């Protein structure tokens, strides 16, 4: 349950000595969650969450339905506030500032922290306008710059070649997998610091899923990614660290290898071996 | 165990077989399409009947009055002793003035309140405001007419001293108030049916609530909103009681809104309520005016259809 940073660093070092030269410095913390509690009305949705998200890593959050994994993700960009009866306590430090502080403007946060949703949700506009939407609302009007952003983002989401000849067509004409990559490109267009992904492949077929997973690996170089997934193999494949949530608590949070090979907690082992969930 | 189960199923099957239900079903299934078809035919025939009467009587009118005088004339003097004049533009001007004022009043307020209700209001406010709007839509137009003549006109006369007792401004504003709930209600429906996932998509990019409303929800609901406006405008064109009471009975072709006017509908009311005998030119003139009105509303409806197709953002 309690993350032991020393051990983790040690484990890192051991790996490095085996694999590559140990030039890697200690990774920067992007999100530092401290004693986070959250209630939906009377329901205690998140209980004493303590969790750190590191720069340029993929952090996976797994757990059975209703365990609070999506809720936690949505707290990271405060989308959870769209539910009227939500209350929170504790702190989430994003780049050392508490985002749960009332003075933290939520638009500023969401400009730095992008999100990809469970179901592809492009706007009913052209592909171009979908990608340009974010830059436009943040005041970028220059057509040439927008063109560049659109191309760069679509390339970044590995969908440029598929759509470059039909940028003016409605995004809803694309397949589900393509739509999801459009949504990722839309998110990349404002060059966020962090990308939150809420089960981004659960509505996609296996091939599209694979493409999105490859993309996540690619994006990790420039972005920090937090991904919620109910697919444990996916977490094992693409993440560096995994948190296992159960009934609103973090049962275990560690490097993905450790979680999937030698978990400390019996409940984690039961879950990953498919005994429940 | 097995036989018991079999017996049970077979007994239900027996009950079904014995029931007389399927006989009545058969009859209903046979009779229903015919019944429903005749209902459809009846309503279509009625429409055709009305249009046919309109065309037939309008034709009769044009035997007496030259069609070019009608289409290009700007003076409407059917009751003058020496020479009757039937220039439709004098009536069209009255109708257009009222419609335009009504639109200017109703569109910004209607869409504004729709945005408020759909994007900002909480469930409680919506539950109170929507029924109130529906009550507003249910007020008989004669009451609105009275309200225009006895309340709005005197009030406006305080502000605009040159305003006549009968004018275009006051009924225009009141017609605007009358069509407002229609625009609000239909536009709100269109905006509420925009999926929440789209709002979330925009919010997650750092958009403010207003940016979401204007740049995501409004465009996505645009076809519904435009249809609501066009529908409301065609109601304003066809509105009768308010303009009869508060607009006056002097058709004039000008752009003055403080002066007395007459709309197409008000003219029909004036003649139908007993000023002209059957078979006279004046009698036939109401059909020609009615036909013109029909063309106007038909054009509006076609426009609504075209626009809602053209601007539909498919999601």
TrEMBL record, chain A:
This is Phosphate import ATP-binding protein PstB. GO terms for molecular function: ATP binding. It comes from the Bacteria. Keywords: ATP-binding, Nucleotide-binding, Transport. Transmembrane segments: none annotated. Residues 31-272 form the ABC transporter domain. Pfam families: ABC_tran.
TrEMBL record, chain B:
PROSITE patterns: ABC_TM1. It is found in: Cell membrane; Membrane. InterPro entries: MetI-like (IPR000515), MetI-like_sf (IPR035906), Phosphate_PstC (IPR011864). The keyword Chloroplast does not apply. SUPFAM superfamilies: MetI-like. Residues 92-304 form the ABC transmembrane type-1 domain. The chain crosses the membrane at residues 35-56, 86-111, 132-156, 168-191, 212-233, 282-303. It is a multi-pass membrane protein. Keywords: Cell membrane, Membrane, Phosphate transport, Transmembrane, Transmembrane helix, Transport. It comes from the Bacteria. The keyword S-adenosyl-L-methionine does not apply. Belongs to the binding-protein-dependent transport system permease family. CysTW subfamily. Part of the binding-protein-dependent transport system for phosphate; probably responsible for the translocation of the substrate across the membrane. This is Phosphate transport system permease protein. The lineage of its organism: Bacteria, Bacillati, Bacillota, Bacilli, Bacillales.
